[in-house]
Every structure is written in structure tokens, then in C-alpha cells.
Amino acid sequence: MKITELKTHSVTPDFLIAKSGFENVERYSLFGSADKFEQTPDFVFGGSADGSGLIREGNKFQFFVNNEDNYAVSKITLDETFKPIAGTYILNSDGAGTRMCSASMATPEEHGFGPVFLTAGESGPESQIQGIFANADEMDAAVPRPLAALGRWNAENAMPLNKFAYPKNTVILIGDDDSGTYGGQVAMYVGPKGDLNNGKVYVLRRTDLNATEMDMEAGTSYEVEFVEIENAKTNTGAQNNMLSQQLNALAFGRVEDLDYRKGPKGANGNHREVYFNVTGQNNSGANSGYTRSKYGRVYRLMMDEKNPLKGTLEVVLDGDDRSSAAGTFQNPDNITVTENYVYVKEDPNGYGDETHDAYIYQYNIATGELKIAFELDHRRDEGIYSTPSSSRLGSWEYGAMIDVSETIGEPNTFMLCIQPHTWSSDEFKGVDGGTVRPNEDQGSQVVVLKGLAR
Question: Is the predicted pLDDT of residue 351 greater than 90, yes or no?
Fold first, then answer.
């Protein structure tokens, strides 16, 4: 008997505008920073909702989500109908110490270990990825839980592959969101199945040793390999970056989110077909000459069937080709890959030439067709959501969008995090319980989308 009943529970309407062809997608504003939960009325949901994951526990659901600029992780309990009823912080700013950006929920059913929330620190190259088990005690919110073996990176996400991709190993791909001297890397941790402490770390490079991102063009497949970063577990982040350069690792303009293609066990190698976003950078100063993407790209990494250290790489969407279908990109950030589609969410990089508020794009894997599904509704005529500095297009962005269809038993259903950066209030200030971000006062929102094709 069906129990879930999707509906709007928030006092704040969703910040979305459906574009042509997506008007029939149902939208429910699930919860946000202005809402009170019946079992925890003093809890205030923080701002900059980003990486997230959902699991079922008995007849309830637990939703884990990074509040990026709070340097914290929330856990929201939803009842059997999918109504949010309680919230707590299981990692606060004292325990995190850095911005917590994208994240992945690893589960035994999907990945062969967990459930553990892999949340990526993104406050410079010395940041670490933390592992928070689903049963973590909120009393330990100030306790760091770094996964040292994954190395130090300016990480956007640590994304484990499906357990069928390489049955004997746990393989975790890491996006390094670095715009500095060494650029952003695609790193990878490989260890025994379920072992997050004793594996090795590698970085991606072309086999011809050309490390320049903009030398790769759409329509061409490039042979790539992963090469080991020795002593990554004990290295500093600066050392990992320096070793990456010495190994001729590909230097991208900020590697952001990664995801793999879904499908049944052994479905044409889907679980080894990985997509990732490079969000781009303004190519100024030391990085001039457009050696790295400016407006952003989407890449497809096809990993070898037997050996995770080999594969091919291609550009599938090139925002720097302003005459292409992706020519409207203003920096893709988060990514969601289903069996048939890639959903790309935009970032506001503030170049000043933005032509729209942030889009969600739908890329058809089979046909290559790119559609615009949603645009953020900034609601500039409502002062509570705007400041004088927010009139420029593109000042809001998306966090994670995750497919929850199978977890909640509702087909074609996703949870989407929204970061309305100019929605601020004293009531949202310093709510995580830590001491590092006492003046952080942004609000954010989580929306349910039903009827979006998978």
C-alpha cells in the first residue's frame, strides 16, 4: 500500500520557473530556512543547501544535506508520507572547518558499503573529505571525521561508483575545484571493497601527456589513464597538487560535480560511464590564454571494463563554443546522471555577461539533444529575497539534485537543493551550533520534482 504523499510543506514557494516542455513537472516546496519542524521547533535549516543523500530507515526517511556556507551538515527526518518532521546538525562548523560542498550517500545496496555520507571540503587545497555514518550521534557534531586516505583536495565531491562497476574494489572519483596555479584535477581512490582507509589515490592524465584542457575539442575521444599520487594519505594538499603537475595530470578550470550513468546490473557498462562538470574560471592573471575552460564544459569518462586506471575522455558539451548548444552556459556546477539523461545545474560565476538566471539543462545521452528545463526565479520584486547588489542575472545557484524514485517508491522523482544567496535574515544566523561561522545568515530551500524523465 502506497504511503508517501508528495505535497508542499514549506511556507516558502519554490524558486523555480519551468521552461517549455517541462511545465507538467510537479513541484513541491518541501522545506526551507523559514520553516519549523514539529518535533524540533528550535531547529533552523541553514543556507546554501548543496550536496545531499537520502536513505530509508524503517518507515521513515533520513535526508543528509550540506549547508555549504555554514560549514555544516544537516540531517532531516521525514515521516512515512515524506513530510519533514525533525532536523539536527550532525556536523557543525567546528567539526567541518571548511565549506562542505557536494556529497554522495554511499549505501550497501548501491555501492557495497555504508550507509555513509561522503561530504567534500572545499576551502582550499588542504581541505579534507569527511565520512559521516548514517547513525552518527548529533552530540558528536563538533568532531571531525576525515577520510585521510582519499587525500587532501579542494574537493567538490567524492563520488563512489556502483558496486558492479569493479566488484572487487571500492572506486571513488574526486572532483578538485581548484582554480589556482595547478588547476583542478580528477582524482580517484581505489581500495578493497568497502575499505576507505588503505587504498591508493590517482590523478587523471592523457596518455600523450598533454595537460592543457583547452587542447581537447568536442567530437574527439582522448586516451587517458590514472597515475598514482604516492603517499597521498599523508601528503599536504599542496604536495598533492605539485605531484599532479609533475605527473602531467590534466589541469581543468575547476572540476565540480561527478556522477555515473545508472541502469541495471551489467547494463552495457553504464556504471563505468562517468560524467563530470568543469565549471570554468575567468582566465585572468596567471591562467590567461584560455588554457582552461571559461564558461564550463561537461565531460564523459568511459572507464575500462577490467581496469579502472584506463579509459577514454571526451567533451560532450562545450560552453566555450558560444555557437554550440551549450553556448548559453554560465558555468555548470552540479550534475545528475540517470539511465537516459544528464541534468546539468548552473553556477553564478559573476563575469558580468550573464544572460539569464541559473538554468537546469537536460542532456539526452542517446541523441545529444540539450534542453533547458528550469530557470531560477529570483523574485527581485520581493525585497526579502533581494539586495541592491543582486540585480545582476545569475546571483543564485543550485545545489545537488538527486534521484529518489526508488527510495521513496515514486517514479521519476528528484530532490533539488536551491541556494538563493541574497535571502538572508538574522533568524538564520549562526544556526549550526558551531563557532566558526557565527554570522552566516543565508537561507536555502529543498524542492521535490515529480515527473522528470529518468
Answer: no
- The Cα–Cα gap between 174 and 371 comes to 27
Residues 16 and 372 sit within 8 Å (Cβ to Cβ): no
Instruction: Name residue, grid cell 535549516.
Output: 45
Count Cβ atoms within 10 A of the Cβ of residue 255 and give its class: 0-12 exposed, 13-18 middle, 19 or more buried. Answer: buried
Closest to 413 measured CA to CA, from 69, 114, 7, 1: 7
**Is the model's pLDDT at 388 over the cut of 70?**
no
Give the three cell numbers for residue 438: 557565527
Q: Which residues are registered as beta bridge partners of 222? A: 313
Cis peptide before 41 (omega within 30 of 0): no
Number of H helices, E strands in the chain: 4, 25
What is the amino acid identity at position 25? Answer: V
The strand pairing partners of 184, in sequence order, are: 252
Q: What percent of the chain has pLDDT over 90?
A: 88
Give residues with Cβ within 8 angstroms of 41, minimum separation 6: none
Element (H, E) at 313: strand 310-318
Please report, to the nearest 10 degrees, the dihedral formed by the alpha carbons of residues 365, 370, 371, 374 taken in order: 80
Nearest to 401 by CA among 342, 349, 355: 342
Instruction: Enter the C-alpha cell of residue 74.
Output: 544537516
CA distance 441 to 165: 42
Residue 243, Ramachandran bin (φ over 0: left; ψ between -120 and 50: alpha; else beta): alpha
Q: How many CB atoms lie within 10 A of CB 28?
A: 18
Taking the C-alpha atoms of residue 261 and residue 341, their distance in angstroms, rounded to an integer, is 8
Q: What is the pLDDT of residues 184-202, one digit of tens each?
A: 999 999 999 999 999 999 9
Q: What is the pTM of this model?
A: 0.97
Q: Copy the grid coordinates of residue 154.
A: 579542494
